[in-house]
Here is the input.
Amino acid sequence: MNAADSGQGVQYGTATMSSGLGHEGDPLNSTFTDDPELTLDWSYRALHNSIVIAKEIINATYAASANHTYFSSCSNGGRQGLLEAQMFPDDFDGIMVGSPPWWTTRESAWLLRTRTYNLPDNGTNHIPPSNFSMIHEEVMNQCDTQTDSLQDGIIMKPWNCQVDFDKLLCDQRPAESNSSCLSSDQVDTLSKIYRDYFQTYDNDAEGATFIYPSLEYGSEGPDWDSVYGPTSGQTLADNISTNHFVADTVTRDAVKNLEDWGRPYRMDADNFDLSEFRKRGGKLIHFHGWADQMIPPRASILFYNNVQSTLRGKGIEVDDFYRLFMVPGMHHCAGPTENPWYFAGGNQACFVGGPNCANSVPGFVDSDHDLFLALVKWREEGTRPDQIIASSFQNTDNYTINRQRPVCAYPKTAEHTGDDPDLATSWLCEEHSPIRVPSHTPKVP
Here is the structure.
């Protein structure tokens, strides 16, 4: 967990540590990747060494070793948590990761490629940030009730929604100004953003190669600025890609070269054989928001599928030690305020808790509402979490509940029973049809 989350962590009564990964300054600065030793520190070495030292400090301070050790973080911290399970299965008894860019090299290639769709800034294809909110409003108009018949500002099943982008065309909105409609070239740009990234190679008998999944419906709005707006290029993965690609050129060789460059540093957490972590009793909880505007949610489903297919041949039931929670309406790790997404996941407590961060889930300090406590209960008592109740708050002064809703362990999703939709008891976890994600053959490290 990061330094801010450490303050929240000690409120559980635990000894807590955080690592700066050997770096100071802007967390989005990737110039360290020019130095092999600093790159190793950032990728996994600094965290692992910090864990070893932290355990020594605990032993010396309390004259006893820790009963159990747990990890919690989101985004790049989630990638590091997965690497811990893969490379150092003895470090932690339980690991909680959120929105991990586990395939960092492909994530970097996708970010650079998808950013070029909205370039140049003066092109007829360019969608200005002032139109992002309008696009989100139209997507919500079409998708909010399309998959669950409930108008609540949340797309519960974005993979099942079909959006007609032509309804955004200016000739379909004759009374609208250009800031409230799109040209045909701009609609084409929007359509590309929602397509999975495939790379077509010359003389390739197998056809186009899958690179990375796209964003989902519901991720639009002002938060798109980080990828498609004037601040684009300010994500760490995007900076990595521009440091190691020829500027704005994404080709087969560029993607391959980026993966080859990142392999010695373990940039990608792509060893899907978690049998050693599972063998020693490790438990893994993984969450991702369906409205994530930075890391495509189906990348997490792809990781889950790869672990499942890798361990199936060993007779290992993945759900016995690994649970994935896909959170409807949640952005990258946290937010927006009005949607029920808060369950004390990595990086969440300080999002809602002001300067002091929240303590667990205020008013509901239990394993039904707090995903970290659910992880602890699973590891120490053997109770597997099949759902977690997510909350939103009317305010963070007294943490008055606004809405609560269960988030179901994949592949189930929450279905409305017809009662008050703001109550968790009005939803049941039910099976749904498989979510399409292009296949990826696991690599052997």
Q: What stands out?
A: Strands lie at 70-74, 94-98, 197-199, 209-212, 283-289, 322-327, 387-393, 401-408, 412-416, 427-431. DSSP finds 13 helices and ten strands in the chain.
